[in-house]
Amino acid sequence: MTCRVNQVEPYAYLNYLFEHLPAASTVEHVEALLPWNLKAMRDEQKKEQNRQQSAA
Questions:
Q1: What number is the average pLDDT over the span 1-13?
Q2: How many helices (H) and strands (E) does the chain have?
Q3: Residue 46 vs residue 34, higher pLDDT
Q4: pLDDT value for 19
């Protein structure tokens, strides 16, 4: 539910998290992966949605 509140698609977030969490070596790196800190990921999702709508 935290993902949805922060406008992050949960499945995409988990995929992103599982890819990037092993490389997180500090508390700051882990905190950067929290849903409310993923503005760049949300922006990328919006771009992908726009691409899909344009292709349809």
A1: 87
A2: 4, 0
A3: 34
A4: 93
Give the pLDDT confidence score for residue 45 in this predicted structure.
73
Structure tokens at 21: 């969490």
Taking the C-alpha atoms of residue 34 and residue 18, their distance in angstroms, rounded to an integer, is: 12
Integer-rounded Cα Rg, in Å, for the chain is 13
Task: For the chain, report the end-to-end CA distance as a whole number of angstroms.
Answer: 30
- Judged on CB neighbours under 10 Å (0-12, 13-18, 19+), 27 is exposed
Q: How many CB atoms lie within 10 A of CB 29?
A: 12
Q: Which residues contact 27 (CB under 8 A, 6 or more apart)?
A: none
